[in-house]
Specification:
Elements (H helix, E strand, L loop, with lengths): L20 H6 L4 H29 L10 H36 L7 H9 L1 H10 L18 H4 L2 H30 L12 H32 L13 H18 L2 H15 L6 H14 L15 H29 L8 H24 L1 H7 L3 H31 L5 H27 L14 H31 L38
Helix pairs in contact: 2-3, 2-4, 2-17, 3-7, 3-15, 4-7, 5-7, 7-8, 8-9, 8-10, 8-11, 10-12, 10-13, 10-15, 11-12, 12-13, 13-15, 13-16, 15-16, 16-17
Membrane topology: Multi-pass membrane protein
Enzyme class: translocase
Family: Belongs to the heme-copper respiratory oxidase family.
Length: 531
């Protein structure tokens, strides 16, 4: 790993004007402040999406209609997905990128500081559009988070607000991705070659290229929807010579790389945490880099595995089935390398490591159910059932969210200058892990038994597992509120928390641990030298 050519402490005594009050946040150009804004926004959206999910689970506690109309239930399932994907998970990873990439590569800031500010301030108006869509005639869009035509062509004005929100969030993502690419390629410290970069920087570089490639595809898909709705075109209208399945092809050409946009930065975080608490270098660093690039390239070749039931020709089904199985190979390489890093390491199990190992176990379950869904014959049987819901959440909650928590516990001492409360961190981990599995593991059985997803009512035979899932979901939600009030806020305000040293983790490596805790407002104005 990297060693530092000279002592950095002298660099952090400079006296710069530091904006204060509302100007510091509204006009922020410092990467740390913008990273904090992203993280705050994403957590608010995460709690909002969580409330929508709990309303869904409350309705599904028993068969029959309990607390809402079917139309509103469909709005909730749609908005829960859109809010979580575009409002919570993606901005959270961009927040970590803003905070950590300049610190990890020895840069003074992000390359385009004002564009960085603009890319964040696009997000709150998009969130307001999504929220407002509940209050227009007809309510929010109820076409599913994928916004499939022809349903999305027939929806009320709430659909238009969702289209505009997705457009704005996409523009924000593209600007953020350009910023990350230019920062990593042009602003690394002297001596830091690409193959000396931390894995988190590598995974974000590759993710940023994915974002630049696929966000315009989503913009094209929703623009065609908008034209079909208001300007008389027939892209997705069979009566006018269009094809509803065309929308699925365009959407999933964005949508499958999007899944990896939400998991590759997670892989990078886990690749920072596991070596630190194993007190060993990452096993197979080069193979991890190549595996990440392989996943990104292959992600463009698997989109139609979401569409096995659309009447695809058998040769097409075979191609996408084999391509999807192939993408499991580089993912398996990563899991093997993480396990090999821990093998015979001097392991300790602080909260970041617990979340990393929890990620490893539960993400692997999601990977196996994904392999099952990759097989066309099995997919036809499980498509549109709760088995898909279980798979998706094992990958995204256990994948993205657990890695975000691992990263937060790992880097929060550097951000805040305080050590979080270890006992409370462990309560948060075990409560989240257990309640997550109580919620989503029964959904495998529900799906295999034939319960369709996105339906407000169900047969009495599915009641027990649904009640188990609802109890688990409320437990999981409570654990995230516990994290906010008993872990995160006390750490940020330093309430009964020990001051953090510059390097709180014995096995941690990298430039970010050479600066004081909390990280000063300006860092690395004289670039460090990496030897």
């Amino acid at each position: 790993m990297t060693t530092i050519g000279h002592d950095q402490a002298a660099q952090h005594d400079h006296t710069h004007e530091r904006p204060s009050g509302w100007r510091r946040w509204l006009l922020a150009t410092n990467h740390k402040d913008i990273g904090t804004l992203y993280l705050l926004f994403s957590f608010v959206m995460f709690l909002s999406g969580g409330v929508l999910a709990l309303l869904i689970r409350a309705e599904l506690f028993e068969p029959g209609l309990q607390i809402m109309r079917p139309e509103f239930f469909n709005q909730l399932t749609t908005m829960h997905g859109i809010v979580m994907v575009f409002g919570a998970i993606m901005p959270a990873f961009v927040g970590f990128a803003n905070w950590m990439l300049p610190l990890q590569i020895g840069a003074s800031d992000m390359a385009f500081a004002r564009m960085n500010n603009f890319s964040f301030w696009l997000l709150p108006p998009a969130a307001l559009l999504l929220t407002a869509s509940f209050f227009v005639p007809g309510g929010a869009t109820a076409a599913g988070w994928t916004l499939y035509a022809p349903l999305s062509v027939q929806m009320g004005p709430g659909m238009d607000l969702a289209i505009f929100a997705v457009h704005i969030m996409g523009a924000s993502s593209i600007m953020g991705a350009i910023n990350i690419v230019v920062t990593i390629l042009n602003m690394r410290a002297p001596g830091m070659t690409l193959m000396k970069m931390p894995m988190f920087a590598w995974t974000w570089l590759i993710t940023a290229y994915l974002l630049i490639a696929v966000m315009p595809v989503l913009a094209g898909a929703v623009t065609m929807l908008l034209f079909d709705r208001h300007f008389g075109t027939s892209f997705f209208n069979a009566a006018g010579g269009g094809d509803p399945v065309l929308y699925q092809h365009i959407f999933w050409f964005f949508g499958h790389p999007e899944v990896y946009i939400m998991i590759l930065p997670a892989f990078g975080m886990i690749s920072q945490v596991i070596p630190a608490f194993s007190r060993k270098p990452l096993f197979g660093y080069h193979s991890m880099v190549y595996a990440t690039a392989s996943i990104a390239i292959l992600s463009f070749m698997v989109w139609a595995h979401h569409m096995f039931v659309t009447g695809m020709v058998v040769s097409g089904q075979l191609f996408f089935m084999y391509a999807t199985m192939l993408i499991a190979v580089p993912t398996g390489v990563k899991v093997f390398n993480w396990v090999a890093t821990m093998w015979r390491g001097a392991l300790t199990f602080e909260t970041p490591m617990l979340f990393a190992i929890g990620f490893l176990l539960v993400f692997t379950i999601g990977g196996f159910s994904g392999l099952i869904l990759a097989m066309a014959p099995l997919n036809v049987a499980a498509h549109g059932t709760y088995y898909v819901v279980a798979h998706f959440h094992y990958v995204l909650v256990a994948g993205s969210l657990f890695s975000l928590y691992a990263g937060w516990y790992y880097w929060a001492p550097k951000w805040t200058g305080y050590m979080y409360n270890e006992v409370r961190g462990r309560i948060h981990f075990w409560g989240s892990l257990i309640s997550f599995n109580i919620t989503f593991f029964p959904m495998h059985f529900l799906g295999l038994s034939g319960m369709p997803r996105r339906v407000v009512d169900y047969s009495a035979q599915f009641t027990d597992y649904n009640q188990l899932a609802t109890i688990g979901a409320f437990g999981f939600g409570l654990m995230q509120v516990y994290f906010l009030f008993w872990v995160a806020l006390p750490t940020y305000f330093g309430k009964r928390c020990a001051p953090a040293p510059a390097k709180p983790w014995e096995g941690a490596q990298g430039l970010e641990w050479t600066i004081p805790s909390p990280a000063p407002f300006h860092t690395f104005e004289t670039p460090p030298e990496v030897k």
